Amino acid sequence: MGSARPRVGIVGLGSIGRTHARVLTQLSDQAVVVAVSGGSPAVLTELGLDAAAHLPADEVLTHPDVDLVAITSPSGAHGPQALAALWAGKAVVVEKPLAVDAATAEEIVRLGDQRGLMVAVIAQRRLESQNVAVKRLLDAGALGRPLLGETFVHWYRDAAYYAHADWRRSLADGGGSLMNQGLHNLDLLQWFLGPVGAVTGQYATLGSGMDAEDTTVATLRFASGALGTAVTTTATRPGDPARLTIFTSTGVLEITHTEITRWEFDGVRRPAQVSAVAAGSSDPAAIGDAGHLDQWRDILGAWRDGRDPAVTGHDGLRTVQLLCGIYEACRTGRAVTLPEPR
C-alpha cells in the first residue's frame, strides 16, 4: 500500500472523529496523524495532535503528506469527501456509512478499485469475537440452514442529542434511526445470512419533531430464501441493548449487544468469546473506543501486508444498498429488489 507507517489525515473532530484520533494515538507505532480538520486548538492538545497540521477539510483530503484519510465528518459528507480523497490518490477509511446514497457508494468502490487504493469502512461489530465465532459456524454449515433472521434496535436519543448537530435531524443527511443507529445490526444480519434480495418497509417520526425518521420496520428476503425482520428506533425509553436472533433448520441463537443470550443447537458448543464493547442504547458516548481500536489494528495490518481490510468498500456498499432499499420501500409503499452483489 505504501510506507509501513502510513501518514493519516483526519477529516472531522466531532465525537466520532475524536474516537478515531484517540485510537490512532494509541497506535502511533503503526501510523502517524499529520493533518486534521475540525476541532479547536484545545481539542487538538487534548488529543495529542499539536504536531498535526490544522487545515480545512478540503486541504486535508488532498494534502501531499497524507497517505490515508480517515473520514469522520457528518454522514452526508462521507461520499463526496471519500471521492475527493480517492481522486487525490489517497486511501480512505470511512466511518459508517460509506455514503448516504447507493449511487455515490458505488462510485467510491469503483474508483478505489480502478486506482488500486484501499477503501475501508468502519463496521467494528464484525470484528467482535462472538460475532466472528458465529459467522464461522454459520459459514461452515454447523448451525444448519438459516430460515429467519431478526434484529431489534430499541434505542433512545433525547432532544439534546438531536439539537447538538443539524445533520442528525435530516433524513437526507443520514440522520435517521435506520442509517445512523440501526446500520450496525443490519450490517451484521446481512453478513451472517448473506445478501438481501428484496425488502419492504414502513417508517415514521414518533418521538421527536424532525425530518429524519426515528422508527423503521422492514421485512427482508435474503437471496438464500431465508426471511428477516428489522426494527430500528431512537424513540423508545429508556433504550435497550440491540438484539439479533437467527433461527435455522437445527436451532436458534440470540445475541443481545455482545452477549450470546440464547443458544439451542444440539452438539454444537456455545462460543465462549464475548467482546468488552459497551452498549450505546441510551448514550452514544458510552460505546467507547474498543471496537474502533480493533478495526484500526486490522486496517493498519492490511496496509502493511498489502491485503484487503476485514471490511472493504464493497462490504460498505452492500450495506448502503440495503438501507437505501428499505428507505425507498418506505417512501413508495412497494417491495424493492436490491442489486445482486458483484
TrEMBL record:
TM ranges: none
Domain Gfo/Idh/MocA-like oxidoreductase N-terminal: 7-121
SUPFAM superfamilies membership: Glyceraldehyde-3-phosphate dehydrogenase-like, C-terminal domain, NAD(P)-binding Rossmann-fold domains
Domain GFO/IDH/MocA-like oxidoreductase span(s) in chain numbering: 133-253
Superkingdom assignment: Bacteria
Recorded GO MF terms: nucleotide binding
Gene3D superfamilies: Dihydrodipicolinate Reductase, domain 2, NAD(P)-binding Rossmann-like Domain
PANTHER family in the cross-refs: D-GLUCOSIDE 3-DEHYDROGENASE (PTHR43249:SF1), UDP-N-ACETYL-2-AMINO-2-DEOXY-D-GLUCURONATE OXIDASE (PTHR43249)
Protein name (Swiss-Prot/TrEMBL): Putative dehydrogenase
Species of the source: Kribbella italica
Biological classification of the source: Bacteria, Bacillati, Actinomycetota, Actinomycetes, Propionibacteriales
